[in-house]
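COMPLEX REQUEST
Ligand: uracil
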Amino acid sequence: MGVMHIPGHDHQKPQEVTLEEIQAVLGDCHLCPLGQTRNKIVFGVGNPNARVMFIGEGPGKNEDLQGEPFVGAAGHNLDALLSKAGLRREDIYIANVVKCRPPGNRNPRPEEIEMCAPFLREQIRSIWPDVIVCLGNFAAHFVLRTETGITGLRGRMHQTGHFVVMPTFHPAAALYHREWQQYLDEDFEMLGRWLADHPASPNKQ
Ligand code: URA
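STATUS: Structure written out below.
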């Protein structure tokens, strides 16, 4: 029997569904049209007991070829940012709002996000992170259920349900908008301070 969970009461993890079980249900998914054009499903990767879970938008070209999130240029920027927060890739878990590459890197469509949503929700429940970092608008809108743009959300920690949420710019966006990089740097430094100031929740120890 699972442990009963009273929403809003504490940070107690609900009954565990493993990432492997979620991936098995996802299988060779063809629930939306992205299943026809993708190379590899990019399920997510990292520490299943991570304190910090990162959520991106969707796989790009390199991710689609390799089946791993954030392995291209955006991933290099992410690595540099992680070090500002005192984190390494092996500490964190990363997944995307949609698990298959939208052709030509177009934005994911509402119906594609809808079809993919249960898998990301289950990943969040399985990892039960202390902090969710939303990289860009799609992740922020998914997690915070708002239409406010990332510029109006970033720069502070939010709380939604059980989770502390840090919305910030997408690391790929800062490659085109160089002026955003300093905000990303500041946000990741804020994340590092938050992690240092808050002890890990009991399920992480
Ligand atoms: N951009 C994303 O949002 N996710 C990836 O995995 C790679 C680039």
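REMARKS: The first helix runs from residue 19 to 26. Confidence is low (pLDDT under 50) at residues 1-8.
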